[in-house]
Amino acid sequence: MKVVQFTIPVSKENTIVVQENILPHYYNHLHRHREVQIEWVVEGSGILIAGNYMQRFEAGEVYIIGANQSHIFKNDEAYFDPEEKKQVHSVSIFFDPHQLSQNLFSLPEMAGIRKFVESLHNGFQIPAAASDAIKKIIFEVRENKDSQRVAAFITLMHLFSVTRDMKPLASSNSEQLISEVEGIRMDQIFQYLVTNYKQHISLTEISEVANLTPQAFCRYFKKHTDKTFVSFLNEVRVNEACKIILSGRFDSFSNISYQTGFDNVTNFNRVFKKTIGKSPGEYYKEFRDRLV
């Protein structure tokens, strides 16, 4: 079922909802909800698409998804293979920013937190330097109930509000205006690209998936992602290449280029450096040096 608008199960007794899930994989379609989502990826990996943002996500990372921000945590292919017996483990905290802004965040003492919440439209990735302290407080929010949960939540929001170097998950708010029909279409496009990135995908082919002419598709895709179809597809491929490089299980960069849909290694090297800011060899060396 391809839906965009989610309804988070919120009881009348709770304004802060905590969900802990251990599943074969994340929900596999682009979706959104009116609540802000704080996501601790305890176990799992894949590609996160949030608005016009995309990058790999790995176990141990923490993200904040803005209210009504379309997003998908797309797990790697292995998570959909029963023989691999892989799973994702996540702790999610949901809260309605509008509701809390009218009561809890309206207190004078909450000015710093209120300002932070107002900046959450595009979401954030929590920097690694702050993630351990933040995960400790997320654990406290999960474990506590009633007023103690609220107290731990306030501590968590304060910690967010003073954390520096958070990475925004999108560069514009335009995608938040997406309708449900458009959301279903964008989901179909994303699903096709992340499933078929290893093959050559022509503009005509992807336009047919979206039921648009090639010219209309280019305008439509640019409007909703602030990227061209080619640049988005290249990001998918480079993210998959990064996964292979970090695994260390490859014979050559030429082999990686063909595994991820590039027609030749020269083009792969050029696109990789443009996307990541360093060559595949430099990226691998940096990773290898961190392990030593």
From TrEMBL:
Transmembrane segments: none
Keyword Transcription: yes
PROSITE patterns in the cross-refs: HTH_ARAC_FAMILY_1 (PS00041), HTH_ARAC_FAMILY_2 (PS01124)
Annotated GO MF terms: DNA-binding transcription factor activity; sequence-specific DNA binding
Listed Pfam families: HTH_18 (PF12833)
UniProt keyword annotation of Transcription regulation present: yes
HTH araC/xylS-type domain span: 187-286
Keywords: DNA-binding, Transcription, Transcription regulation
Protein name: Helix-turn-helix domain-containing protein
Organism: Dyadobacter sediminis
